[in-house]
Amino acid sequence: MSVKVHFLLEDLLVEAPEGTPLQAIADAAGADITFGCRTGSCGTCRVRVAEGLGHCSEMGAEERDFLQGLDAPADQRLACQVTVHGDVAIDYLGL
Amino acid sequence: MTTLDTLLRDKVLLLDGGMGTQIFARTPTVEDYGGPALEGCVDLLTERRPQWIREIHESYLNAGADAVETNTFGANPLVLGEFGLADKAYGLNVQAASLAKEVARSFDRPRFVIGSVGPGTKLITLGHVGYAELLASYRVQMDGLLDGGADAILIETCQDLGQIKVAVRAAREAMAAKQRKVPLWVQATVETTGTLLVGSDIAAVLTSVEPLGIDVLGLNCATGPDEMHQHLQTLCEASPFPISCLPNAGLPENVAGQVVYPLDPAAFAPKVLHAASEFGLAILGGCCGTTPDHIRALAPGVEKLNPPERTPKLERSAASLYQSVALKQEPAPLIVGERTNANGSKKFRDLLAAEDWDGMIALAKEQQKEGAHLLDLCVAYVGRDEVRDAGELLGRLVSQITLPLVIDSTEVPVIEKALQRSPGRCVVNSINFEDGEGKARKILDLCRTYGAAVVGLTIDERGMAKTREEKLAVAKRLHALVVGEYGMDAGDLIIDPLTFTLGSGDETFRGSAVETLEALRLIKAELPGVMTMLGVSNVSFGLNPAARHVLNALMLYHGVKHGLDMAIFNASKVLPVAKIDPEERRMVEDLIFDRRSEGYDPLKAVLARFSDRKATLADDHRADLPVLERLHHGILDGEKQAILADVDEALKDHDPLKLINEVLLGAMKVVGERFGSGEMQLPFVLESAEAMKAAIKRIEPHLPRESTYQKGRILLATVKGDVHDIGKNLVDIILSNNGFEVKNLGIKQPIESILKELEAWPADAIGLSGLLVKSTVIMKENLHFLEEQAQRVPVILGGAALTRDYVEGDCRRSYSGAVLYAEDAFEGLRHMQALVAGDVSVPAPAPAASAAGDIRILKRGSASVPLTEHGQSSWVRHDAPSPEPPFWGVREIADAPVDLFEHLDEFALVRNRWGFSQGSQGAEAFAAVLRNKAEPQLARWKERLAADPVFQPKARYGYFPVRAEGDALRVLDPGDRSKTLAVLGFPRQGSGRRLCIADFFRADATDVLALQLVTLGQAAADHAARLYREDGYADYFAFHGLATELTEAYAERVHARIRRELGIHHRDLPGRALFAQGYQGSRYSYGYPACPDLEGNGPILDLLRGAEIGVHLSDSHQMDPEYSTSALVAWHPQARYFSA
After folding, report:
1. Residue extents of the structural domains in chain A
2. A-chain residues within 8 Å CB-CB of B1089?
3. Which of B374, B508, B560, B745 is the most exposed place for a label (fewest CB within 10 A)?
4. Integer Rg of chain B from CA
């Protein structure tokens, strides 16, 4: 099963196997998302999941704690922590 | 008559604003103070410039304040003594209070005078001043304020729990002596860190001062109103006292060497009024930076407020210096750690005899780790001076332990000394009526003075109460005295109905457990609100450890069912009842409930059943375990001191080589497994490694000559051009403490040197490390070089920028020997074990296309953003004018280390640097680890670094006129803009927004570029190196992480200053959001995705003349010393991080 990831900032549409980490997809496709620590503690790669939030992997404790600390809205995720299980549209916040 | 108290019932009270701010606005001269030696003695101005003080009071009363605070913040003999004016203290207080009264009386409606009592300059909790000395000093001040006519005493700006308690006592004693009782108010100062200066949170403050019977508890100073919300919320929910709130006019900012408060009256007033209605505040006003205009802005809103109605709910609690712990735990029971007790623990007794204070503290910390809620502390030891021992131990202990204390003594002087040395709220254990009520009263007097809770034992003149009726009778008598006569809250009386052993077989005590359990039920039913406690393990004295374990657990279980709230217990031995064998449970319950029958005696059954059994569960009564097991646990628990005695004992009967190979390395293997499964955190792993190192050092002299326990050898190095050594050093620690010989070549190692070492010192593998992205390329080049040299030595690669795919694909293709990827130190260890065992053949390279092969681009947005005529991304708009910097060129600043903590990203430090992660733990267990381990660790470092000049933070920053030219910035000479100082080039994104750092600066006009460079100084780097050399692994790792984050914090501090100076700071977000670029503009450092090339550091250092603060560039273009960082600051609102 493959899924489609739409990077809205540059209108880039990518197909990848279900369960692929979002950062691998972004890296391979050259999407305009900046990663920092890639461990869920710097927040550089914060994105808004514009569509398909339910197709993203569950949050781990680290990511949840990090985003809660920022009072981030529920549709925001750290791109480095997400694996994709269905079609999603991703808006890089560049925060 | 209107009094302060009646007024408080009728309205929200408005106090004045800052006194110091108003005084300094009059720019006092040396002449005003009365000579150079007295400069800065603000309290003296009451005498020297009374007209000023009068004017200030008048201006606040005219602005609408109901009350003013006297100019006596530092007017006590200790502070004035620093100016040689100690004997003026009383007079200055009288004068200040009467002057203020005089002004107040000249107004129409009732206005009041609040006697201000500041925190002084010495922290009693940290031992800067003795109890008696501080008490005497405050007494003089209180006497003066009362004699001068103050309508209330306000102990304010409190930074130290210990200080509050002393000042409250001084005020009480002064009022009693003068028979003039006025309201007593207390205000604590919560720093931006969320705690008082010494680390106490507001709940700990409330718990500790509540029993002292004050009249108001509030907050002032340190921060603006917004930062106080969380703490006001805590008080709103729990404090029985009216709440006051006197914030600063915002968080103080340092602008060009001047302290500036950002909130003007129009911004300040709505924030304070909002907090007043949100949190039910009763008294409002201002502190530093607030003026009569701030008070005037508040006045109309305050008139509209109704007196607050709150329904606070205060749980009876005890407190340490740091935190409050409710005596009623859900689920019950609260566990009182029993091992820091010279009567109950041989280990503690031995440590006390040896005056090994650190060892005793270690034992206390162990119990904290095991989950005790409070710590029982008893230093009674025949032949020793118990008062001195209590003082010595507590003086050291209270700042290192986060658990509240139970002072276990019946000696009045010991209890008093212990209470004086304990800044939080203690429980005193205990009173009884063995010799009538005299001694109990003396101890209760102390409990009242120091605000302690108390344990009462059911013992009276006839001796220990044995039946349920006797126990209840004594409990009622305790209640009548403590609650009835002394007026203490029933929840602060903890009744211990006594436990006797069932192990002796003594007929008189066969039914004693039943009597105790039934007494619990009766006490809870007949004396509502009182708490109960038992020394549970007494029930099993005389039995063997395995039987004790089960009996104690079941007695605890039934105790709780009968109403037991608190148990003195070994926290590590709490055994879930479900895990007890049903047959054994029945037998032991028969013993507890004395169910004997014809031919059946449960005691005999228990004795027979457990006769040859060792305690099977983790047992921290080390003495109960065989020595090899003690060693095993010593490693797991990282006890580098305690393990040595066990090593010595084990060496008597065991082969030293076997001890290392089987016992110690076996334990380290478990450590590695637990780390891998997420059960064990990195800081604990390092403690285990330290214990391992200590044990091996002890064993080594006993090893037969020529023998080695070492399994193999590895050469370790950080690759050429990379200065990062923490990761490599962690690998060194783990490998060398798991039986491998490690030669650590250090940083910036060219492959040629590594190979040369290999020839001289043949090893089983080379380990290459590096943090930089560039290092991953170097590693591949190194492998090519080894290939050319026809080497086949296995190479293990590790480092932050590496990926498994890259190592197992690209890197393996470059070299014919084995190339292995180690994600962490333990994977490196597994590789080494496999290599030495011959289990590794040369793995084949992974196929070139890995996961990426299955990722297909279906559509790429038709057009990239076009570039402008100047060659810049048209995505960036230049419609806002560039800000004007306050100066052009470069300035140097120095900051105190403690200032950096304000900007510390604690989340990043604890989670990322220190490696605390939830792993497989539950959320609660992890929260406990953070609370009991990470937070105290941070507090300790903060304290240590405040005293030790290992950090010498310095920074240089400046503003340069620049002009963008395509992908570059032309930096102009601020003195002569026709001259170019440097041209800085940056990479540009290939598609999409096509961004480049230069785009955030104007091409059609001169713009402003800010540059900054910060360093913690050479001493910090030297200190880290020394910790590592001396095998302080956990300290080294913690220090390195902290220093790295403090470097970031310093960069953020300087960046904040730049934003302020450019006038773009109003976009700063509060709290942690700031660390995630929660501000206008961006700060770019070389080596990160927008400007990855470290060579860019060269021009920045030249422009800022970094050498003047000792910062140089290494040949690999990195900052030296370590803990230095530079950055370019763009002010443009669209400037954010991006990857070029």
Report:
1. 2-92
2. 34-36
3. B508
4. 34
